[in-house]
Each structure stands twice: as C-alpha cells, then as structure tokens.
Amino acid sequence: MVVKSKRQKKADEQLAAFGAEIVEDIAAVRPPKLRVPSRSTSNIFYDKKNRYFVLGDKHGIRSAANVKQVKKIAQTLCVADFCKELIDTSKFATLREMYYTAEGWDAGSFNDQGESDVIVEDLESMFGVKREDLGLVPEEDGAAVYGQLVVKEGDAIIDATKAGRGGYTIPPTIDDVELTKCKAKRVIAIETMGMYHRFVQEQAWKTFDALIVGLKGQAARATRRFLKRAHDDLDLPVYIFTDGDPFGFHIGMVIISGSAKLAYINHELAVPDAKYIGVTASDIVNYKLPTDKLRELDIARLKQLQKDPRYNTKFWQDEIKKMLEIGKKAEQQAFSKYGLDYVVKEYLPAKLKENE
Amino acid sequence: MVVKSKRQKKADEQLAAFGAEIVEDIAAVRPPKLRVPSRSTSNIFYDKKNRYFVLGDKHGIRSAANVKQVKKIAQTLCVADFCKELIDTSKFATLREMYYTAEGWDAGSFNDQGESDVIVEDLESMFGVKREDLGLVPEEDGAAVYGQLVVKEGDAIIDATKAGRGGYTIPPTIDDVELTKCKAKRVIAIETMGMYHRFVQEQAWKTFDALIVGLKGQAARATRRFLKRAHDDLDLPVYIFTDGDPFGFHIGMVIISGSAKLAYINHELAVPDAKYIGVTASDIVNYKLPTDKLRELDIARLKQLQKDPRYNTKFWQDEIKKMLEIGKKAEQQAFSKYGLDYVVKEYLPAKLKENE
Question: Buried b / exposed e across A215-224, counting CB within 10 Å, b at 16+?
C-alpha cells in the first residue's frame, strides 16, 4: 500500500475536486472554466508585512467554450491527471519527463517545454501548492548539509555527520523527509562549496553548534524549502554567508525574501528572518580583504538592487552605497590571506556576536 | 597524531626530496634548476596502447640563474611548502584559497589565479601525482552514488543505500576514502540527475546489481577517479549513459580516454575499458525517440569528434556519421515517451545484454 504524506493527501484531494468540478460541468453541458491567478508583473507585489513578493487578486478565466483556449484546457487536465497518477503511485517525475510523456497524450503534445512548464505553474498558483507536492521535481539536487541533524527518508535514517564529507544531500523531494532529531542551534548557509568544505574541515559545525549548508551558488528550491523548515519547524536562526558582490547579496536575498518570479509560492520558500552576515562592503574595508574591481555589470546590478523593495532597509542601502563608493568586491575565500582557519576562528564568531 | 595515507606519504616524500635538492644546490652555491615536463600541444600524444592522452618527453628547464625565471621558481617553492604543510597537518585547501594565501608570501603574490594554478600543474607533472594528493582540492564535489557500496571516510562509515535519495556524494578527497564493501556487480554512470533519480526511484540499483552514479554533466576529477577505482580496485565494469548529442558523447569519452589538457595525469583518471551504452544515433532511430534538430554547433562538434583519435573506432565513426545523416539528437529523458519506467525496464536490459 502506498502511504501518502499530509501534503500529498492535500494535493491529491485538490486534484480530485478539480476533476470532479470539470466532470460536473460536462454532465450539465456547461463548458468548463478555469480561474488562473495572473502571474504578470502587474499582479506581483512586495508584501511589507510578510517581507516577500506575493500575487495580487487578478485572475484570468480560461473557458472551454473559447476555441483558442480549449487545447490548453485539455492539456491542463492531462497534466493534472499525470500528477494525480504520480501521487497515487508515490512516484515523482521531472518537468522534462512530463514534457516527453505528453508525446502520447490525446490533448496533443507541446511544441516546447516552456509550454508544459507554464501549465504546471498554472496548477501551482491555482492550488497554492508547490509542484513538488504534485510529484513534479526539479532535475537537480539541493544543497549539502553537515551537522547534528538526523533525517528519515522512507525507511532510511540519515545522520548528517555520518554521510561523508560531502554531507547529506537535500533531495528534490525534501518535504517528504522527516527532520527527526536536531541538536544544532543555528544554520549557516554558505554560497560556495570551497567555503563549505573549509567549515566542515575546521569543525565549525561542532564549535558553533551549526548545520553547515553548502548552497552551490543560487539556492535550489529544495534548499530554500529546507532552510524554511529548519527555521519554522526546528526553530533555528538562519545565517547566510556569501561572496561580497551583488550576486552574493542576491543569493542571500532570494533566500530571505523570495523572488518575484515565484511570488505565487514564496509563502512556502521565503525565510524573512534569515540574516545576511557577509561578506559586506564594510567587511571588505574592516578586514582589508584582497579585492577585485567592480565590473560594469556589478555596478549596474548594485544600482538595480538599490531600487529593489527587498533591499529597502538601512543595512542594505548603506552596504550597497559603500560597495559602489569603494568600487570593489571580495570573495569568501579572500579571508585565506590571514590563514585557512581565520574565517572560522575570527570572522565567524565576530559576525555571530554582532547578529545574535 | 596525524595518520597519512600511502598517497600522502609518497607526495610528502617527493616534496621533501624536492626541497632537499634545492637546499643542496644553494649550499653548493649552484643556482637551483627545475625540470618541468612540457604540457604544450606539441608534447601531448594519444597513446594507442593505453588508449588515452599522455605527455611526451619534452621538458623545460627553469633556472634561478635566469632573472626572468627566479620569481616563478620562488613561487613554486612556496607552493610546494604550502602543500607540504597541508599534508603534514592532514588539511586540504582549494586552489582559490591558496591563491589568496599567497598574498602573504615573500616570493610575491600572483596577479591572477591562472598564475598560481599553472604552478600547481607544474608540480603535478613534475611528480606525476594529482594535486589532490598534494592537499589541493577542487571546489566542487563529485557525483552522487547510490547502490550497494560501503565506504569509510576517516571514522565515518557510509552505506550508499542509506545516505538518502541524493546518494553518497563523492568528496574532492576521494583517494582518502576506503571502498570497504561492495556487493554491486557493475557501475552505471549517468549524465543527468533527472535520469539518476529515475534509476534510483525504479530501483535499478537493485535489479541490475549496479552502483548508479549521477555525473551532473561533465564528470568532475573526483568522479573520474572514483570510476577508475571502481574499475581497477573493485573490478567492476563501467557503463556510461548520456544524452544522445556530441556533448553527451564527449562526457562519455572523457571518462574513457581522458582529456588532452590533463594528459600529465590521465593514468590516474582514464577508464579505457568503460563502455558507452547510449543514447546513440542508432538508438534514436531504433527507439523512434523524440528529437531536436542538430544545431550548427552540434554539427561542427561532431565533425571535430570524427577527427579526434579517441573516436577512431568503427563504433564511434558509424554513430557520428549516422547522427550527421539523420541531423537529430535526443535526450536521455526522451524515453519517457513510452512511460517513466521504460528506460529501466526495456532500454537498459537490452543495452547491457548487447555490451556484456
């Protein structure tokens, strides 16, 4: 027998209700209609209270009575059916696999994957659930986690201090994972794997009672979901440590306040209480770090961030201004100038003290 | 007390001997000289017997008596000293960390990381060891492994069926990992993580007694080393499954016959007996796979491969020719057209039968 998680049950019920409604319409000889939240820029707002982007109230109505929309409605039903079968058989598939599976659908196949992806986003925003809960998962795994956390994936029990140096890999299906035991007191999310390995090697996870999370650049959806669960379910403060450049800043900010593109699902992903600890422009000055000159692209990006509502705090405005003034950026690994363990022995304690 | 592996001991001895020679020269008021194998294209040859690229006999002599070379010699000694300290303290560092550490060296810092990387390659080719054995590791982790393998990393014992769906992550320091127990009978290395997760989900590791390796695109050095050790030390046949396009072919070929760029170290990385199982041009035709048209870039790349000595076999020449003729390529996930499990239930058994 297939055991479904609470989330899968909820998604399954939503899909069943959706199907029942369509069947009812057809039985009553009424053309089925879909009410799809608009995801256009004009319907994306920064929610100051929640501190992340959300969708407004605008909706589009798609009707089977409209010849131009009927194929898309049929495809939406096929996607919903595909998802229901995934949930009912406890399977998952990638967006790419679904795109190819559609080659065999009566509703007609898609011209490119962009078309099938959009339909999945429609369902996500109609139901307010993540596509992962519908059985559709990203190709790539999430971050690496090292530290005093024990998780349960199906029958497997995994201790994130005993999964090897590479750590426990956050799977695309992170919501099916039970976080069964956690002795850590905080999470430190790190942009580069070079710095992640430095933290693991210097046993920062032990010294600082921390889960060390190696983001591998921009955080994957599964990683963001993991960080949110660590914060909400395990009650851990989350700290973010990236390169000191606009792209590093934004890796942090997307974890904190989500992206506009995923406004319809930020309530599942954003961690507004997460704290960005560096590398800041002030760090570059105070620690006399080796730097690179800002490129034109960096400067343009910093100027964009100045106007972005997510950066509308004194801390961010000051740091962006300072970086533009000094005209320089620095990488996390630049602390090696003072020895390989300096970042763990000196920088990190100072930063945690400042933020706790 | 720090326990060194056999490889670390060997590297440590080589570094010590190297230092002793320099000291001897200086004591005898003789300007120290370095004999560095040439890594220019004119000194890289395809070795038909070993079936991978190797370096020829050409060497450059670098002398401290030459004012133009003295800084580089001093820097080489600093790098060697840095590596010896890493080994002696059982630490490792990234190339990037070493580059920044050099900010504090008397020999003068580097203008960019390209300069310090070249010196590391000099040492690798002078000693015939990998930089990982010198304590210098890549930033990124290697592939994911799922299957009946137990490894030992320091005190941690990891079962690659119990590390979670994301699998056991091959660390940059894979040569320090003991492969303690293996019940698997073969290795299947897979280009994309989407297909890796499909194989894990459909329990292909159990059905085919296989270690499933998720390459994440072009195989990292640590992954290639792992595959070589699985073949040489565990005596397992290695099969490679990639997208059916020139870039997929080459992901396979670099595992099989190594790259020209790493000719000085291919004896540690290449797995000439590994078998490429697909997606081939013949597969595209025989399985009537959904395809994309070859782009100009693909065609140009295929024509390059035709002339590459590594592809000088009937199998490859036929497949490249056929792909150019049909003008089409296909992804691994294209098999989903026939259902999510088709690739594991039908394609893989047929391919293994053909190749075993």
Answer: bbeebbbbbb
pLDDT band at A107 (very low <50, low <70, confident <90, very high): confident
Cα–Cα nearest to B83, from B135, B131, B139: B135
- Listing DSSP states for B208-242 in one string gives TTEEEEE--SSPPHHHHHHHHHHHHTS---EEEE-
H/E segment holding residue A315: helix A314-326
Which chain B residues have a beta carbon less than 8 Å from that of A213?
none
Instruction: Determine the residue of chain B that is closest to A143 in CA distance.
Output: B166
Radius of gyration of chain A (CA): 23
Find, in chain B, the residue whose alpha carbon is nearest to that of A171: B166
Contact by Cβ (8 Å): A262, A269:
yes
- Name the pLDDT band for A217 (thresholds 50, 70, 90): very high
- Three-state DSSP at A241 gives strand
Active site residue B100: yes
Closest residue of chain B to A136, computed from CA coordinates: B194
Contact B245, B208 (CB under 8 A): no
> For residues A272 and A231, what is the distance between their CA atoms, to the nearest angstrom?
10
Q: Which of A235-249, B104-118, B170-184, B196-210 has the lowest mean pLDDT?
A: B104-118
Query: Residues A296-323: pLDDT tens digits?
Result: 999 999 999 999 999 999 999 999 999 9
Count of residues in chain A: 356
Q: Is B317 helix (H, G, I), strand (E, B) or coil?
A: helix
CA–CA min distance A233, chain B (Å): 20
Count of beta carbons in the 10 Å neighbourhood of residue A126? 18
% of chain A surpassing 90 pLDDT = 88
Beta strands in A40-83 (DSSP E): 44-47, 52-55, 59-63
Nearest Cα neighbor of B139 from B101, B170, B95, B179 is B95
pTM of this structure: 0.92
Cα angle value B40/B42/B47 (rounded, 5°): 105
Residue B222: predicted pLDDT = 94
Chain A residues closer than 8 Å to B101 by CB: 336-337, 339-340
Which domains are seen in chain A, by residue range? Answer: 6-137 (1.10.10.10), 144-355 (3.40.1360.10)
Burial of A160 (0-12, 13-18, 19+ CB in 10 A): buried
Task: Choose among B158, B197, B334: nearest Cβ to A163.
Answer: B158
Query: Do A157 and B162 make contact, defined as CB atoms within 8 angstroms?
Result: yes
Q: How high is the pLDDT of residue A3?
A: 66
Task: Judge: A340–B140 Cβ closer than 8 Å, yes or no.
Answer: no
Read off the pLDDT band of B3 (50, 70, 90): low
Tokens 């533009």 — which residue?
Answer: A324
Residues of A in contact with B157 (CB under 8 A): 162
Half-sphere exposure of B18 (CA within 13 A, CB side): 23
pLDDT of residue B139: 84
**Paired residues of A212 in beta bridges:** A146, A188
- The DSSP symbol for A177 reads -
Annotate A179-188 with b (16+ C-beta within 10 A) or e (fewer).
eeebebebbb
Complex confidence, ipTM: 0.90
